[in-house]
Specification:
Layout (H helix, E strand, L loop, with lengths): L1 E5 L2 E3 L5 E8 L7 E7 L6 E6 L6 E3 L7 E6 L4 E6 L8 E8 L4 E4 L2 E4 L5 E2 L3 E5 L2
Parallel strand pairs: 2-13
Antiparallel strand pairs: 1-3, 3-8, 4-5, 4-9, 5-6, 7-8, 9-12, 9-13, 10-11
């Protein structure tokens, strides 16, 4: 099983990027997918998750309204569309997949845990003028 994130790069504040996560050895359509990021000197944090049935979509508060997670089962690829990028979005972004539902729920709001089985190599996103 291999996951590979790509599509990162240098972008100016306010710009957009679309990250892709391609898989080999598993069908992403049957897995919960998560996007995570790790900024220099900081711990890894979750960004967004999409359940295998597409009925649970969760975004970290700082990216709500700016980022969109989606999947293309025919291409066996998951995407993270990032708009209105800010310097604080600078990080290495990684994708992860799990056959279960690695979510936490509090007050009816879902968030992603890090209990994912498969992790991919990251892609670096730098937001700077």
């Amino acid at each position: 099983v291999q996951l590979q994130a790509f599509g990162g790069g240098l972008v100016q504040p306010g710009g957009s990027l679309r990250l892709s996560c391609a898989a080999s050895g598993l069908r992403l359509g049957y897995y919960t997918i998560g996007w995570f990021r790790q900024a220099p000197g900081k711990e890894r944090e979750w960004v967004s998750c999409l359940s295998s049935s597409d009925d649970i979509i969760s975004y970290e508060d700082s990216v709500k309204g700016r980022f969109t997670i989606s999947r293309d089962n025919a291409r066996n690829t998951v995407y993270l569309q990032m708009n209105s990028l800010k310097p604080e979005d600078t990080a290495v972004y990684s994708c992860a997949a799990d056959p279960g539902t690695p979510f936490a729920i509090y007050d009816g709001i879902y968030s992603c845990t890090t209990d994912f089985t498969f992790w991919g190599q990251g892609t670096e996103v730098t937001v700077s003028s």
